[in-house]
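--- STAGE predict ---
source: upstream dedup step, 1 unique chain passed
mode: sequence only
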Amino acid sequence: MKTNKITVFYDGACPTCVRDRKWYESWLGKHPHLVEWYDITGQDEALAAMGIVPSEALRELHVQDSDGAVHKEMDAYILLLRQIWWMRPVAWLMGLPGIRQVLSAAYRRMVDQRLAREGRG
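--- STAGE serialize ---
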């Protein structure tokens, strides 16, 4: 499977998100160049200029593919996991009907709880 560089928009003010970024970076192994990391903290104007709604970027992972298209939530995670050769089967499973919806609901619940706990929700 061909991989192209992607840009992952993540919440740098979120300790869990920063930790997750470090995991993904380590999983990329010899291919860290496949992912550019963009901290969305304080970047509302820049995000809006890219066509990304800042409040949505806070609640859903956003990933820009090599063609410039922005993908959200589960589609974004699938793109990210495809960059890691051994996670491609997981990415495929995440895209299956039913599984995608369950993961989406769980993800949204966790993010909403985290933001509320941090006083940002």
